[in-house]
Design brief:
Number of helices: 10
Number of domains: 2
Largest sheet: 6 strands, mixed
CATH superfamily of the largest domain: NIF3 (NGG1p interacting factor 3)-like
Strand order of the largest sheet: 5-8-10-11-12-9
Helix content: 25-40%
Distance between the termini: 33 Å
Radius of gyration: 18 Å
Structural class: alpha/beta
CATH architecture of the largest domain: 3-Layer(aba) Sandwich
CATH topology of the largest domain: Udp-n-acetylmuramoylalanyl-d-glutamate--2,6- Diaminopimelate Ligase, Chain: A, domain 1
Number of strands: 13
Shape: elongated
Strand content: 15-25%
Length: 256
């Protein structure tokens, strides 16, 4: 798969979402090298550590959900320098991957074995909207927590704010720490809201609203969406090898 082949595949995968977020810094190459890409590594984040692991894996192309954003002062520059030195392209795709049908929300729902996704996560009126799914057989508070911890392979913070079984859940992966998102879950009669970050106010509001709150890490609630992206690429170019980069669980304090 040549780099230009990969680039030309993107519109068929992401459709309108590339246009929606065009010129907003939500996707693109930080390092683009036209070459034959046989080994494609993927991770949630672009960091010196994920670049080093991509180098050690002899990757030709690194896919991530996040750029090394401008507020991570100097990190992008260091990453790009190492990528160029080792002849590795890097492509990130942020909000389009959050809202495409196979993206981060849908992928996490699939990991926790939801039975029915009734609405996809979306971006409407410049606002993020969680996805909603239903368990045909309701789970207990602890059963859902255990299922998340098994799939994310890390501790999950959870707050039980009612005694009902969990049948309907909302998800916004990553930084879903806005109380507006929990209100959306409540207004849509969800028993639980699952995300990757919290604040004092999101915890307070979830308690007030009577919605069970589950918080994994930003990194690991989103990795399955990147994996789904890689698999979509492999469907078109089956000869590529996909390599998952193992990131440290730094948000939960667990570093390998």
């Amino acid at each position: 798969m040549k780099t230009s082949d990969f680039e030309q595949l993107l519109p068929s995968l992401f459709g309108k979402w590339l246009t929606t977020f065009e010129d907003e810094g939500e996707y693109g190459f930080t390092c683009r090298i036209e070459k034959d890409n046989k080994r494609v590594a993927y991770a949630t984040n672009l960091t010196p550590e994920t670049v080093e692991k991509a180098i050690n894996a002899n990757a030709d192309l690194l896919l991530t959900h996040h750029d090394a954003w401008d507020f991570l002062y100097g990190m992008r520059e260091e990453c790009v320098a190492e990528l160029k030195k080792n002849d590795i392209s890097h492509f990130f795709i942020h909000l389009p991957l959050d809202f495409v049908e196979f993206g981060t929300c849908t992928s996490l729902f699939e990991q926790i074995e939801i039975d029915e996704i009734t609405s996809l996560s979306a971006f409407e009126h410049d606002t993020e909207v969680p996805g909603i799914g239903i368990f045909h057989k309701a789970l207990s508070f602890s059963e859902l927590k255990n299922r998340l911890e098994l799939k994310l392979d890390e501790p999950v913070r959870a707050w039980q704010n009612h005694d009902r079984p969990i049948k309907k859940a909302a998800i916004l992966t990553g930084a879903g720490n806005n109380s507006r998102l929990i209100k959306f879950a409540k207004d849509n009669n969800c028993d639980a809201f699952i995300t990757g970050e919290r604040t004092l106010y999101s915890v307070q509001y979830a308690k007030f609203a009577g919605v069970n709150l589950y918080v994994g890490s930003h990194t690991y609630t989103e990795i399955f969406g990147v994996e789904s992206f890689g698999r979509k690429v492999k469907e078109t170019y089956p000869d590529i090898e996909l390599i998952r980069i193992k990131e440290d669980h730094i948000e939960s304090g667990e570093v390998n």
